[in-house]
Structures are given as C-alpha cells and as structure tokens.
Amino acid sequence: MNYETPLFFHVMEYADAADRDVIDMVSGNPDWQPPDALREGLREYADLEPDRFQYPPSEGLLELREEIATRRGVDADRIVVTNGAGEANYLAMARALERDSGDEILLTDPVYPYYPGKTTMLGGTQSYVATDEAGQLDPDDVRAAASAETAAIVVNTPNNPTGAVYPAETMRELVAIAEEVDAVLISDEVYDHYDLSGEFASALEIDSDHRVVTNAVSKSMAVTGVRVGYAVFPPGLVANAKSRHMLVNVATTRPGQYAVLKALRETGPDYYERNRQRLRDRVETFTDALDAAGAEYTSPSGSFYVMARFDGYPGTLENVERLIDEAGVAGMPGEAFGDSRTEWLRFALVTPCVEEAAERLARYFD
Amino acid sequence: MNYETPLFFHVMEYADAADRDVIDMVSGNPDWQPPDALREGLREYADLEPDRFQYPPSEGLLELREEIATRRGVDADRIVVTNGAGEANYLAMARALERDSGDEILLTDPVYPYYPGKTTMLGGTQSYVATDEAGQLDPDDVRAAASAETAAIVVNTPNNPTGAVYPAETMRELVAIAEEVDAVLISDEVYDHYDLSGEFASALEIDSDHRVVTNAVSKSMAVTGVRVGYAVFPPGLVANAKSRHMLVNVATTRPGQYAVLKALRETGPDYYERNRQRLRDRVETFTDALDAAGAEYTSPSGSFYVMARFDGYPGTLENVERLIDEAGVAGMPGEAFGDSRTEWLRFALVTPCVEEAAERLARYFD
Questions:
Q1: Fold of A36-266
Q2: Could you check whether the bond before residue B110 is cis, i.e. omega within 30 degrees of 0?
Q3: Residue in A46, A57, A255 nearest the CB of B9
Q4: What positions does the domain Aminotransferase class I/classII large occupy (chains A, B) (predicted)?
Q5: Rounded to an integer, what distance in angstroms lies between the CA atom of residue A270 and that of residue B18?
Q6: In chain A, whose CA is at the least distance from the CA of B97?
Q7: Which residues pair with A297 in a beta bridge?
Q8: Which of A8, A97, A227 to mutate to test the interface with B (most CBs of B within 10 A)?
Q9: Which of A157, A209, B13, B293 could be joined to A166 by an S-S link, Cβ 3.0–4.6 Å?
Q10: How many CB pairs under 8 A join A and B?
Q11: Architecture label for domain B8-34+269-364
C-alpha cells in the first residue's frame, strides 16, 4: 500500500535547506505566543509527584474532558482527548468507515490533504464536491454526490486552504444529508478561534447521531507541537472510538493535557482576540500588496491562509521550490489541495514578515 | 467491529472506586521518580520561543532520533519517534500486515493483551504459541506454527506478564523464522532496563530486514504518561511506517520529546541501577511472603510482574474484584493474558507496599 503523504513537511524541509533567507508561509504554525498559563502549566507539571507522570485515563484527564464538555455544551462521556486534531480526524473517519454503511468519504475540492491520505490508509475511497471560487460549499452539490455508499462527509470550517467559513444553514444541511444517507458528518473546527467573519457556526449546534466534531488547541493556543485535541462523538459511536484510541495510542500525553487544562481555565478572551486582530492586520497587509502586484487572491473569512494566483505561474511543487530559491518566499502548491486549485499558491500568514513577503512576490512577478 | 479492549483501565477504576484502602498492583505504572533531568527538560521547554511549540518533524526531533540511533547502533533514518511503545507496536503490526504476506499475527500465550486487540483492529487474525511455565518460548514451537500466512511474530522481552527474558539464541531463531516465512519479527523491548537476569538480548543485535524493535522511555524513566517511544524499522519498511505515523498522529508531543532527550543525555547508569535494585528487593519481599502463604508463583527474570496462583481461586475478573473488596489488593486477572494463565493472578511490583500486599494475600488465603 502506498499512502499519499501530505507535502507540508517536504516543502518546509526544502525551505530550511535553501541557500538564502526564506520567509516561511508553508505550514499553519502560528508564530505568536502560547498563553502564559500553558507555559506555567508545564512548569507546574514538572514538579508533580511521580504518580502524575503515569498513564492518564485513556480517553483523557477527567477534569480536561469536563472543562471541554462545559464549554461545548456536551456530555463529557462523549469526548475523547486525542493527539491533536490529526488523531481526532483519524478516529472519526475510522469510526465512520467501520459502521458498514459505505466506504466512500465525501471531501471538498480544494481539500486539506490529510483527509484523502487518511481515507486511503483506512481503506476508504475519496469523492470530491467542488466548492465555489470563495470556498463555499453548496449543500445541493453535496446532496447530489451523497449516496448509500457514503460513510462520511468531512468538512473543515473555518477552512484550510480557502479561508471560507460555512454559514449555519450550510452546517444544518450537511448534518441533514448525513442523516438522509446514514453517513457521519465530520466537522473539523480547529480554526474556530480564527473566525474573522463572525459567521462561524459549529456543527455542535445541531444535535444529531450523525455528527462528529473534531478540534484541538493547536491553532487556538499556538501550540501545534504539544498535540492535544479532542473529538465529540454521538453516544452510539463513542465507545468504539475510545477503544481505537486506546489500541493505537494508549493515551494522550499527560503533561500536555495538564498544561492545556490550566490554559483553558486561565486564559481570557483578550488572548484570542489579540491573535485574531493580528491576523486581520496581516490579511490586509498581504492582500494590499497582492493588489499592487496585480495578483488574484481570496481574502479569508477565517483560518490563516490566502490563496493567490499569479499569471503563468501554476501552483506546482516545482514552482513552489523555484519561488523559494528565487523569491525567498515559501508557500504551498495549490495542486496539493486538489484539482480545482492547481493554478494557485497558498500562503500561511504566520510570520511577522507578511509585508516583506508580499513585496518580494510583487517584485518577482513584476 | 468490536475490539477487545484491554482490561487494565477497568480494573484500575474498580480499585479506585472501592470502599476501602487498596494496594494497587494492577498496571505497570512505576511508583518511583522520573529522572531529574526529565523534570528539568519540561521546565526548560516551558521557557522556549514560540517556534519551539510548533510541529516537530513528523518522525521525531532529529537530535532525539540521533541520540537513540547512537545508543542503539542504527541509522537515525530508520527510527520513528512515537506516542509511546503503544503506537510503535501499532505501526509495526500495521506495516507487517500491509506487506501482503499473510494476515496472521503469531503471539505468545500468555500474551500482553494489547497485541491481540491491535490485531483485530488492523484486520489480522491471532494465533498463539504457548510458552512453558517459566514463560520461555521454544523456537521450534514458533517454527511449527509459522507459515506463509504469518505476517508478524510479536514478542515482548523482558516479558509482561511472565517476567521471562529470552536468551540471545531464542532471539536469533525468532528472526530466522521470520526470514524463512517472509514475516516480520516485532520485538517489544520496553522493559529492557528492568532485566534482572543479565540475559537480555535485543533483537537489534541480529541484523535483518525482517525485524522491527519497539521501545519507549515509559518504563525506563517511570513516565508512562509522557508518551514518548520509538520503533526501529528495516530500511525497506520505514517509509510507509512514517507515513502512517504522520497520517494518524502528525507528530509526537514535542515537550515530551524535548524532556526525554535531555533526560537521555544527562541521566547516568546509577538511576537505572537504583530502580533495578528496588525491583529486586520487592521481588524478594513479595515472593518470600507468597512462599509463606503456600502460593505458587513465578519469580521474574525481568519486567515488573509476579504471577501467582492460589488454590481454588482462578484468575477471573470476578475474583480480582473480590480480592480488591475483601483483601484490599488489586491485581490483574490471569485470564486477561490468555488461556494458559486462567488460574493465575498478575501482581505489578510498582508500590512501596509489596510486603503489606503479600501479608494481606497470605491472611486472605489462609
């Protein structure tokens, strides 16, 4: 079996090895500070008694699950604390495929490339529904594509790579479609704290036995490397997901869970608002410069990404590497996100140098 | 699909909920101190710049892989840093089954129950080779059981639950058998620092394209909750294992990797020897008391466990729960480890109260 491994790490390594300074806009790694309480949580943990260094409950520390449950308005029993949203999505997709209700995973085009990779690994087949130019998904298109073969519909809102935020009506329709064809809507909401539009609607708002929500603090707390996320399952699907989690990972890292719990409790809304405002400023700076360069682009409603298109410069891996070497800006090839964005490049606004990056792009494509 | 979830967490919860003081000898959670350098590593990490909180390389921090590679005498490219030995074994077993060279996983009886659980989850089938009373595995029995259908042979040395340590000759034969039937020997060596016999032989000593070694610092550094382990794959099998790791977990927790790297570098042999000596003392104390109680038992050559048999008290879950309630000692039911040990109970020597526990058992069975 050959999996398609997402290209992120490859492009980052290429950029690191480049013989010049490169502005890194490849991966969704925030460059801002984690909450102080998260750092303090790690310090506190370091001083705990030996028993606190041992296995936490497999499904996650009870206090952490309760904290998440209260915030999300669900029963703690339905939550599995995972090794980031990555494992949460893996568990959700595996659970959907194991229901013996089809082996098709319905994805969007463009798509976050881990989803098709996980699908292949889990023995499922991918089908794609195209979004519009702005990244919005028409539920009628999803309904037309869904069938008895559909095991899951996987969406990501706010969206990577398009920056789209799906309105509440779309989320309601997606859950309804999952119910109609006996599939599971998997809503990956890891960018929920970076909704710039005020339009974000969590799938948790629609009660259903056909809906799983995945999330993590990786983006909201700027700690992609700590690896603490979670999935909220319907009551009928959670037991088997917990078993898979136990059999794959035994448990999620305890120092990370401890620090995240402290950070959830002690971090006020100003932390998150500051990060959103920084992102808004960067979007404006970057897109202004793209305007000046005459490039086409999407202005994100949420998440970290701007997709841009430069005339005669398709979004291939080769062109991304050339841009690293010749312009000193590292993005992601649009082709990594699906057939509909092969002309595009994706830039993550996770560097203080967005203005300089935009200027380099403008000079290069001038 | 219904997985068989290992019972450990269930028994621990039962013991926690008991209406009396209970000596916990259920799980392999060391009660001794982690290395000071590991604690210090977490403190150091807490003060690092934001970029150090982001995704490490998917296969693990380069410096950690190099540190492990040097210690184990292998190329760093063959190492995947995992979420504990649990994920390492999952990756190894998945890799073996994907080779399209059989779907049988050959296990020992008694067995560490995560192995059959993982096998079912991965769509494989279990076969068992019985060990002798001391837990030793006769390679001729393995050879007789192995066939073209065998994808992997999974062993654990030093062994949980028997305490057996396989001699070098057994390891050589097991690798040879894997080569003969085009299978993979997976050697889980997570208790390697608790060899009390001096006889431990790592499968890494035998160079082969049919051998994967898994390990972790969970036991050696008394940090089962930190979740840092690794697998060493043959060159031809490593790429796909790295892909699966990326698609399941993206990466292993970075604060944990950082702290473990520091602890590997700065912890001297006295730390490990002190823990072995404590274990030797506890084995002696516990088995002396079992002798006095007239119980049958195995004295471990390695790992944390003593298997004991009390006349007319088979090792069922029901009897384990009765022992918790009536004697105040929590062990694991032998039936959890396979058909051959249904008469036995397993006690983990990870409490300072082993003498008190043995006395309680002696009184209860008097």
A1: Aspartate Aminotransferase; domain 2 (3.40.640)
A2: yes
A3: A57
A4: 21-358
A5: 44
A6: A1
A7: A308
A8: A227
A9: A157
A10: 199
A11: Alpha-Beta Complex (3.90)
Of A46, A52, A114, the CB nearest to B247: A114
Q: Rounded to whole angstroms, what are the CA distances from A355 to A16, A20, A280, A288, A289?
A: 20, 18, 13, 9, 7
Spatial distance between the Cα atoms of A61 and A40, rounded to a whole number of angstroms: 18
Per-residue pLDDT reduced to its tens digit, B56-99:
999 999 999 999 999 999 999 999 999 999 999 999 999 999 99
Give CA A118 to chain center in angstroms.
14
Cβ distance of B227 and A244 shorter than 8 Å: no
Count the alpha carbons within 13 Å of A220 in the hemisphere toward its beta carbon: 22
- Predicted local distance difference test score (pLDDT) of residue A366: 81
Domain regions of chain B by residue span: 8-34+269-364, 37-266
Q: Do A9 and B57 touch (CB under 8 A)?
A: yes
What is the per-residue pLDDT for B4?
64
Instruction: Assign domain B37-266 to a CATH class.
Output: alpha beta
Tokens representing A330 are 């590292």
Contacts of residue A336, defined as CB under 8 A and 6 or more positions apart, other chains included, come to: A6, A7, A113, A317, A346
Whether residue B224 and residue A90 make contact (CB cut-off 8 A), yes or no, is no
The shortest CB-CB distance from B253 to any of A40, A51, A227 is to A227
Q: CA of A46: which chain B residue's CA is closest?
A: B39
